Amino acid sequence: MPRHSQILDSAAGPLPAPADWQSHEPVALLRNVLRLTAPNPGFMTGPGTNSYLVGDAHTGFIAIDPGPADTDHVARLWAAARYPDGSGGNLALIVCTHSHADHSPGAAPLQALCALAGTSVPILGLASAPTARANSHFVPDASLAHGQRLVLSRASGQDSHTLQAIHTPGHAANHVCLLLEEDGMLFSGDHILNGSTTVIDPPDGHMGDYLDSLDLLHQTCSAHGAHFILPAHGHPLPDALGAIAHLKAHRLGREAKIATVMHANPDGTPDQWLPLAYDDVNPRLWPVAKRSLMAHVEHIQWLQSGGGAP
Ligand SMILES: [Zn+2]
After folding, report:
1. CA atoms of 168 and 210, how far apart (whole Å)
2. Tell me, what's the pLDDT at 306?
3. Closest by CA position to 179, among listed 194, 197, 205, 161
4. Which one of 52, 144, 167, 198 has the lowest number of neighbouring Cβ atoms within 10 Å?
5. Strands 123-125 and 27-30, how do they pair?
6. CA 53 to ligand 1 centroid distance, Å
7. What spacing in Å lies between the alpha carbon of 225 and ligand 1's midpoint?
8. pLDDT digits (tens, 9 = 90+) for 102-160
9. Confidence check: pLDDT of 8 > 80
10. How far apart are alpha carbons 170 and 190 in whole angstroms?
11. What is the whole-number distance in angstroms between the Cα of residue 85 and the centre of ligand 1?
């Protein structure tokens, strides 16, 4: 049974306005989970990238997604990982959910700060695939295997914090989610966001993989009684299973709409399909929506060809 969910339950509450976000102080979501949002709000990043610290002063911390290479943010993250005497840099591991520019570039400078203080802290994750864009190149010190468990605990073995790695390609080929087993919460990276829909950008993004990974996350949350999702952008999502089901239905609904538009305009181009398939979306977002449209088109064509090996 998850240990601390009730604490987050009261902390989640109604969503404050985006203006209420701040990047200067870590926010305690649980006794053993801190969130520090990077000062990179924007069109694609919402209020900014959420970096998370999991652990406590006695076990050390795992940093998830150090974010962009922002000197101040990285220094705040380092300082927030406190030892019992209040000093910073109490990090055991750094994990990147994927290689995108708003997630992984902060890992090396954070590691360097730790090294300056005499601590060797490995960076874990999955290497970027050859399909990744040039600004998303990433090579971890060690690869995270699917199902691998990262365990923090006191020397006595008490007060453990266990993160289980779940490979979730789709948003990025090297995307990993992390399940905090003791508390029943899922760190979803960019696979699941709050307040916006993640972009699937082929060829590194892949719609079939994205939908399969959603199914896997649903199974995992169900099996572990995980009730909360902590996304890399936006507030915690309560009702993990409902949120995943809603997201899948949204994707399949969009795909059905695109398939209808393609069927009605078989000689059309993606640029002609886009305004018809996304007529409910602000045209300002169409350039970004086009990437996901291309991922849907690829998936629709694959299904229509019989759904063999992609
Ligand atoms: Zn992101």
Report:
1. 7
2. 85
3. 161
4. 167
5. unpaired
6. 17
7. 26
8. 999 999 999 999 999 999 999 999 999 999 998 889 999 999 999 999 999 988 878 89
9. no
10. 10
11. 33
The rounded Å distance from CA 304 to ligand 1 centre is: 31
Gap between the Cα atoms of 220 and 276, Å rounded: 36
Amino acid, single-letter form, for residue 185: M
What is the Å distance from ligand 1's center to 42 Cα? 11
Cis omega before residue 105 (within 30°)? no
Q: To which CATH superfamily is domain 5-239 assigned?
A: Ribonuclease Z/Hydroxyacylglutathione hydrolase-like (3.60.15.10)
Amino acid identity at 143: S
CB-proximal residues (5 Å) to ion ligand 1? 102, 190, 232
Q: How far is the CA of 100 from the centre of ligand 1 (A)?
A: 7
Long-range contacts of 137-145 (CB under 8 A, 24+ apart): 137/99, 138/96, 138/98, 138/99, 138/104, 138/174, 140/96, 144/95, 144/176
